[in-house]
Structures are given as structure tokens and as C-alpha cells.
Amino acid sequence: MNSLAQPTVPTAAHSGSEVVLQVRELTVQYATSRGPVSAVNHVSFDLRKGEILGLVGESGSGKTTLAMTLVGLLRPPGRIVGGEILLNGRNLAKLSPHEYKSVRLSQIALMPQGAMNSLNPVIPIREQILDGLRDHGIQLTPAEADRHIASLLERVGLRAEVAKLHAHELSGGMKQRVALAIAISMQPQVIIADEPTSALDVVVQKLVIETLRDVQEELGAAIILVGHDMGLMAQTVDRLGVMYAGRLVEIAPMRDALISPQHPYTRLLIEALPSVTEKKKLRGIPGLAPQLLNLPKGCAFHPRCPLAFEPCSTITPEIRPAGPDRAAACHLLEVTP
Ligand SMILES: Nc1ncnc2c1ncn2[C@@H]1O[C@H](COP(=O)(O)OP(=O)(O)O)[C@@H](O)[C@H]1O
Ligand SMILES: [Mg+2]
Fold first, then answer.
1. Is there a domain that residue 1 lies in?
2. Is the peptide bond before 321 cis (omega within 30 degrees of 0)?
3. Beta carbon of 62 within 6 Å of any ligand 1 atom
4. Is residue 218 included in any domain, yes or no?
């Protein structure tokens, strides 16, 4: 890779760990009757082998569009208008739908948002797991299939008998685990989990996250965990990416993000976390979430930003290094070293 092509975001060179996925200046637009909107806007980041990268941002910030694009499931009116998705150096953004099919599941897999509702109600779990393998031309004997499915189910904390059941016979948490079993059925190097815990109660949320973590440790896969629950992220991820209006506005090791957020939006997200020591009242971020069709000029966050100053309403800040192994997109970084 030409390092000149990736000037803005720290790379694995900082940590010495291997990078599996490099997203470079990825831009995805939806065609609408009022013109194109960029739901993912010049997003760049690296995903390192074996790490859990969290992606947060309020509803509509482009998280699902990014997740779907990375696994080649973006559908019209959405399309990639620029950038690269390099999986072990191979640019997936250039693949045909047919070519993508051979990469998806085997190398990069998605637990889709609302995964528990994406299971087919009339097909037993066993067949749904095998369908994915068959798509890749993998034919197992019944005995091999039994063994493989039992081991997958065990890995996600389910009994082998679950294979015979239908989705409606499972609880939400169990369905979520089945979706995870499908995602890991071919041992992909990258697993993207889009809001895997949103519809679950806190106890089941914890179980699903623990399962995700176990699976990641066992397989050595890298995980992108998409969500909007900063508390859950703080307990789960190694690094945090923050999205706002389609842009990645900050990326940093989770600890650093918590201790010293560099983007005012990240700071507000963290201040909204209920603190263990002080009984702070939980509050949202003031102001309205941005409308992609009507984005403010300059930094999209500036109308809600408590620290906005002169350039913010006119110039869009580029994401740039903001300390060791971190980057942020904020004009304040230019005035406060
Ligand atoms: N099929 C579509 N057509 C037009 N706009 C879309 C479509 N899907 C998503 N969008 C727009 O893209 C933006 C990002 O949506 P999404 O990726 O679902 O965000 P998130 O997952 O962060 O909530 C939203 O403003 C949404 O309205
Ligand atoms: Mg979403």
C-alpha cells in the first residue's frame, strides 16, 4: 500500500498489529427524489486482526449503510461512489455481486440489524445454517453437517437440539445467537455485528456480547460492533469510532476516548453516560439530529456544538491525527495542540 494514499488516519504501524481490513475514503450515496445524499462520507479506518472496533453514532448517522456496504449487501438506490474496501489488500469495492458472494460469509460476515427477525420462520435452524455453506459449494454428509452444526451452536452457547427448531420456538437472545452461529459458520476473519443487542434486555445483552467476545477470541476474528449504547461500548470494545452525519469524526482506543475525547460530539456522548461515582442525570445530546438532505455548511455538527467557532460554519474539518493511534475531525485540533 502506498502510505501517501492514507494520510489522515493512523495505521497499524502505531500498534504493530496486523491489519485485516482497510477502509479508504469510502463514500456511499442514496439517490433520492431531491438529489443524492451521502450516507457514508469519505470514511477511512483500519480494522486490526483480533480486535473489537466499536462504531457509534445516533440513528441515521450511516452505521448500517457502512455495515451493509462492507459485506456487499448495499442495494439501490444506494451505491458506492468512491473509495476502497481492502480485505487483506484486495479491493472489495470493485467486486461484482457474484464475486462478492464468494467472499461474504467465508471472509467477511454480517449479523444484520434486527438479525433475530431475519431468520426464516418456516425453515429449521439446521437448514438455515447449511444454506449458507451450500451457497459456497460446501456439501457435507449428514453426519458431518450434524457435527459442524452442533459445534457451531455450542460455540454460541446453544444446545445441539436447537438445530431442529424453528425461529418462532426461540427467545430473542437465542435467535440472536443463531444469527451469530450463521455469521461464524465459515470462520470469517471479519465479523460485523449491527446493533446485536438492541431489542434485548440487559441480561441477555450481556450474554450476547460475552458470546461475541468468546467467539472472537476462539477464532481470532476481528469484529466491528455497531451500536449506539456508549456504556456497552465502553465495556466491550478495544477501539471506538464515532460517526456523525455519515462521517467518521473520531477514532481512538476506547480508554483514550473515555479519558480525553477529542471531538466535542464524542465528549457529549461520554458526558451523557451515567457515572458510577457521581449521580449525574442521564441526558441526551442537545439539538436536533442532522438531516442528510439538508446538512449545515462546514462541520455538520456545528449547530449543536458548544465549542463551535469561526471556521466551523464554513469549512468541513478533515479527519486527522489527534495523538498516538487516534484521529479526529475538528477545527479545535488546529488551535489547541
Ligand atoms: N434505501 C434508502 N434510500 C434513501 N436513503 C436511505 C436509504 N437507506 C438509508 N437511507 C438514509 O441513509 C442515512 C443513514 O441510514 P443508516 O445507514 O440506516 O443509519 P444508522 O444505521 O446509523 O441509523 C439515513 O439518513 C437514511 O435516511
Ligand atoms: Mg442502523
1. no
2. no
3. yes
4. yes
**Any idea which ligand is nearest the CA of 32?**
1
Q: Tens digit of pLDDT per residue, the chain (337 long)?
A: 333 344 444 444 444 579 999 999 999 999 999 999 999 999 999 999 999 999 999 999 999 999 999 999 999 999 999 999 999 999 999 999 999 999 999 999 999 999 888 899 999 999 999 999 999 999 999 999 999 999 999 999 999 999 999 999 999 999 999 999 999 999 999 999 999 988 888 888 888 888 889 888 988 999 999 998 888 899 999 999 999 999 999 999 999 999 999 999 999 999 888 765 555 555 567 788 888 988 999 999 999 999 999 999 999 999 999 999 999 999 999 886 5
Domain with residue 116: its CATH number is 3.40.50.300
CA of 286 to the centre of ligand 1 (A): 22
> Hey, how many other C-beta atoms are within 10 angstroms of the C-beta on 201?
10
pTM above 0.85, yes or no: yes
- What residue owns the CA closest to ligand 1's atom 7? 30
Is 183 part of a structural domain of the chain?
yes
Ligand 1 center to 160 CA (angstroms): 37
Three-state DSSP class for residue 221: coil
What is the whole-number distance in angstroms between the Cα of residue 60 and the centre of ligand 1? 6
Total domains in the chain come to 1
Domain that holds residue 138: 16-335
**Dist. CA 147 → ligand 2 center (Å):** 34
Number of H helices, E strands in the chain: 11, 12
**Which of 61, 248, 291 has most ligand 1 atoms within 8 Å of CB, for mutation?**
61
Asked whether residue 76 is assigned to any structural domain, the reply reads: yes
Q: State whether the beta carbon of 32 lies less than 6 angstroms from ligand 1.
A: yes
Cell, residue 132: 449458507
- What letter represents residue 103's amino acid? V
> Would the CB of 57 count as within 6 Å of ligand 1?
yes
Secondary structure class of 121 (helix, strand, coil): coil
Q: Would you say how long the chain is, in residues?
A: 337
Distance from the Cα of residue 64 to its chain's centroid: 8
